[in-house]
Design a protein that fits this description.
The complex is a heterodimer of chains A (289) and B (249). With 289 residues, chain A is mainly alpha-helical. Chain A is 73% helix and 1% strand. Chain B has helices at residues 26-34, 71-79, 111-121, 126-140, 155-167, 185-200, 212-218, 236-248, and strands at residues 7-21, 42-56, 60-64, 86-92, 95-99, 173-177, 204-208, 221-226, 229-235. The longest helix of chain B has 16 residues, at 185-200.
Chain lengths: 289, 249
């Protein structure tokens, strides 16, 4: 036994997100559990993850693109919209579930010591697993529309996804900890999630905001979600347009050179603050739950 | 095997205070602040006052006391679930709590999935669970039902599986809280035999139970807690006798 040589340690002293890495096997099981539980007792199982976004896409295509005729101002509007929606879906699902994760797992947290960061982080991974089928539908639609992305665009899309994951993890840590003390946090987060869909250019085009905000447009651009959504447009929507249509479309200046690094800085700062607040309050989780 | 003579658990001047808050909403907290912090939002309650004790590796200790004497709080401080308000806790080696078995069970997963999930929650690695899996199933007497969802298990099967996982986690220090009353009598005997086997292997056991006859057969040393203080620490039969005389009086 190694018991005699080991040092005396103080129990319950976590190292934050580093501990999650040490417990990645448990993280994997927690993620797998959530996914399994979600589709328990259903015949089609995981297939539902593909059918639902497909249906959503068809609705946008027919109702918004054709009936409302938004296609005229924004070519391939359905793809434009869907590229933004999948990313926002990922963010809202991650943050919404992460906020509830600590309270939902209170039975475990009250009885057994685990790195508590596991729970919010696991919800982000689960959301990523649900994001994949939506991405497949998006790519399918793009391919039908003649998608020819460059390697740079694909790399940018991956970075945008990482950006959103970091932001969702940071905010998730912050609000899941706050939710232990004040259950109001769930409602605050629900409100944030409502705003997010409209605070980034998902349903409209960024130039519309620029026309209104003028010199203050940079404020709008500070939102990391805005940057991520714009990058998704650049990666998925742009390469489906033909040359005539490209004249109608444009991307914000300095998107990759300035705004992507800025968005990463903001997200990492949020993650840092979230982790700090989480660690400080995690000590009291067991008695506050 | 683990040698005696090393400290496995060391508690120094432990103090734990619980704050019983009445409110869970921001509105009430804001109203309270606006009104000039009049009245108390919370009530304080001392669960442990100045507890110091040391447990050597390989010792079997029974923690005794009436309800509300602070036994479970002490166990949670040792496992790291709670942090003390004063004093320090130190432990050596991996500590596993057999605290409320089945806390990590999910009803919609099969027994097999739950073995992996719960094993990982209790700190086992993937390989350890793979190696132990057959032994866990055999000990639990679940047999062919291992691939059935646990919501269809009888309460006895459920507890047997949970207990079986817990005793297979193989830590250096076992914390056991009121779980020896598991299943029917033959299984209970088997559990006790297993626990004795663990202590023979030199594992440190720290047991909380109200079953005084049982703890005096399993443990050597007894610690009596009352109102968050250690009032007696000695040979288990003497401590049990002391507790009995106090409750009779």
């Amino acid at each position: 036994m190694a018991g005699t040589t080991e040092e005396l340690i103080r129990p319950g002293q976590g190292r934050g997100l580093l501990d999650v890495y040490d417990h990645r096997f448990l993280l994997k099981l927690l993620v797998r559990k959530e996914i399994k539980v979600r589709y328990r007792g259903s015949v089609l199982g995981l297939l539902w993850s593909y059918v639902k976004p497909l249906m959503q896409f068809l609705i946008y295509f027919v109702a918004l693109g054709i009936f409302l005729n938004l296609q005229r101002g924004t070519p391939n509007y359905a793809i434009y919209l869907f590229a933004g929606i999948v990313l926002v879906n990922f963010f809202t699902e991650s943050l919404g579930n992460a906020t509830r994760s600590i309270v939902d797992n209170r039975d475990l947290i009250r009885k057994i010591y685990l790195p508590r960061e596991l729970f919010p982080v696991a919800t982000v991974w689960v959301s990523a697993a649900h994001f994949l089928p939506q991405l497949v539908v998006l790519i399918g639609a793009c391919l039908i529309a003649g998608w020819t992305p460059t390697a740079l665009q694909l790399a940018a899309a991956v970075l945008a996804f990482v950006l959103v994951s970091v932001l969702a993890t940071g905010l998730g840590l912050l609000f899941s900890a706050a939710n232990v003390y004040f259950r109001d946090s769930e409602n605050i987060v629900d409100m944030i999630l409502m705003v997010v869909t409209w605070a980034s250019p998902v349903l409209y085009v960024w130039t519309m905001v620029k026309d209104v905000m003028g010199p203050w447009y940079w404020l709008y651009q500070l939102n990391p979600m805005t940057v991520a959504v714009e990058i998704f447009h650049w990666a998925f929507w742009f390469p489906t347009l033909n040359e005539d249509q490209l004249e109608l479309a444009s991307m914000p200046p300095d998107l990759m050179t300035v705004w992507l690094p800025v968005a990463f800085l903001i997200s990492i700062a949020v993650l840092f603050v979230g982790q700090l607040a989480f660690r400080r309050s995690a000590v009291h989780f067991a008695q506050e739950l | 095997m683990t040698a005696r003579g090393h400290v496995a658990i060391s508690c120094k001047k432990l103090r734990k205070q619980f704050v019983l808050r009445h409110t869970r909403s921001m509105k009430e907290a804001v109203v309270w602040l606006v009104k000039g912090r009049k009245g108390d939002l919370s009530k304080k309650f001392m669960a442990l006052t100045d507890v110091s004790l040391e447990v050597q590796q390989g010792e079997t200790v029974a923690l005794l006391g009436l309800n509300g004497s602070g036994k479970s709080t002490l166990l949670k401080l040792i496992s790291g679930v709670l942090q003390p308000d004063g004093g320090t806790v130190h432990t050596r080696g991996r500590v596993a709590g057999l605290i409320e078995v089945g806390a990590g069970f999910h009803h919609d997963l099969s027994g097999r999935d739950n073995v992996y999930l719960n094993g990982a929650i209790l700190g086992m690695t993937e390989k350890q669970i793979d190696d132990m899996f057959d032994s866990i199933v055999e000990f639990s007497e679940i047999g062919e039902f291992i691939d059935t969802e646990v919501k269809f298990y009888s309460s006895g099967m459920y507890l047997r599986l949970a207990f079986s996982i817990a005793v297979h986690t193989d830590p250096e220090v076992f914390l056991i809280d009121e779980i020896l009353a598991v299943g029917d009598e033959p299984f209970q005997r088997k559990c006790i035999a297993k626990i004795k086997e663990l202590s023979d292997k030199g594992k440190t056991l720290f047991v909380v139970s109200h079953d005084l006859d049982l703890v005096s057969t399993v443990c050597e040393r007894g610690i009596l807690l009352e109102h968050g203080e250690v009032i007696m620490d000695g040979e288990v039969h003497e401590v049990v006798a002391e507790l009995r005389s106090r409750t009779a009086a």
